[in-house]
Amino acid sequence: MFKKMLHQIRGLLLSSISFAVSPKLVTYARNPPNSSTLEVGDSEGNGYDSHCLSWRLAVEANNVRGWRTVPARCQQYVERYMTGGQYERDTELVVDEILSYVDRIVLPGDGMDAWVLDVDDTCISNVTYYKGKRYGCDPFEGAGFRAWAGKGECPAIPGVLRLYKKLIGCGFKVILITGRDKERLGQVTILNLHDQGFSGYQQLIMRTPEHKGQNAVAYKSNVRRQIVEGGYRIRGNVGDQWSDLQGEHVGDRTFKIPNPMYYVS
Amino acid sequence: MFKKMLHQIRGLLLSSISFAVSPKLVTYARNPPNSSTLEVGDSEGNGYDSHCLSWRLAVEANNVRGWRTVPARCQQYVERYMTGGQYERDTELVVDEILSYVDRIVLPGDGMDAWVLDVDDTCISNVTYYKGKRYGCDPFEGAGFRAWAGKGECPAIPGVLRLYKKLIGCGFKVILITGRDKERLGQVTILNLHDQGFSGYQQLIMRTPEHKGQNAVAYKSNVRRQIVEGGYRIRGNVGDQWSDLQGEHVGDRTFKIPNPMYYVS
């Protein structure tokens, strides 16, 4: 019996150790079980992340604008969000919602139904680059980003690639609009997109000297105006920045892909 | 020494019990530590909530629209969100953001700077009512809501009351716009707001027969047009529904207060 008791005690000790090595214990250590912070943790995540979750929510709801960097205390949070699975889940749910909207559209068949997609962190991902910028805790730096983009190694965002293929298959004229500079990044962007499965689009519109000095909303609005003046109907518009989705001729419906790493005005 | 050892074992046993009664253990029970679901749980919350977190995020980002009820699987999630602390945290962060915007506004002092606030689940809370509607898993039902609102017992949302007092103190003309029916709920709404500390506003605008048949965007746009035609500048606009913040004359800047319980078109 004593042996059995020892065995049980050993079991309890081991289970305590398994708690001790679990990341959850960090939460307990910082937030004792009776604290209200832990209650937050219970419903929404590790207690010490609840502020960063609020911040991320406010970014996605366009309540927090014009931020230059991710708050320093949220670096680890954003890293786990982007790499731990929740970013993919959030994106997949948005894509499912877009696809159910697409399924309700009846195309008249004149070939003038357009769909606008942003490129960076909408079609293809820069998470690898932003890892080196502490997931957005370091400010944007143009030359470094261009060096990264110049490699042409941005991977497709799987959910958006799935959407893209559906749109092409349905007969939408997909128009990609990016703030990337045509002269410096035109060729590599075309190749990167092609390598990742984004082929068959109607047009890839990039920044040229004529767009110089325009912020994202103005540039993208101008481009969309030309699309509409060309006789197209913009049935949908998807981007990771609110500046992709605001201004003029935004489209019949807009969808925001999550991005807590940077903000483009 | 044996006594000390027994004491340590007792401590371990007690800490195991405290884990056993903690809601966290439910997560472990449903999601073994090695499952990918738990990884999501580690970064964003209980593993089995990660879909509902994605849904809530998509609601706040205006990606999911026109929904009639909260998904059944998210009832417990929304309950915990609304009552466990994260809703308050999310709201407080938005209010802090609004206040930092307010602090940057220079009022010309002509008394024509207006601020628009929605009422239900912006200034005062209906969470108690929605508890009886399974936190939004049951569809909206007008008579029941009017009976609840008719009691005049909606509590202030603390963060928004804090904002309200700041706005009044700064000299903004605060205009409350609500979809509540003036004839049936006018008097009790005025009293409820007053009891909860919302006094000194410029105007409370409610639905009258002239707004019949208008959806929220049309009704609120019409009302705001009259405000602007009256010479006011709408410097800010806060609501828990995207329909509060869209349409015409939305104001210089809009802010979305979280609400995963219902959707108003």
From TrEMBL, chains A, B:
Gene3D superfamilies in alphabetical order: HAD superfamily/HAD-like (3.40.50.1000)
Classification via InterPro entries: Acid_phosphat_B-like, Acid_phosphatase_pln, APS1/VSP, HAD-like_sf, HAD_sf
Entries under PANTHER family matching the protein: ACID PHOSPHATASE-LIKE PROTEIN, HAD SUPERFAMILY, SUBFAMILY IIIB ACID PHOSPHATASE
MF (Gene Ontology): acid phosphatase activity; nutrient reservoir activity
Name listed for the protein in its UniProt record: Acid phosphatase 1-like
This protein's UniProt keywords: Glycoprotein, Signal, Storage protein
Protein role: May function as somatic storage protein during early seedling development.
Annotated signal sequence range: 1-20
Gene behind this protein: LOC116209451
Signal as UniProt keyword: yes
Keyword Nucleotide-binding annotated: no
Family: Belongs to the APS1/VSP family.
A Pfam family this chain is assigned to: Acid_phosphat_B
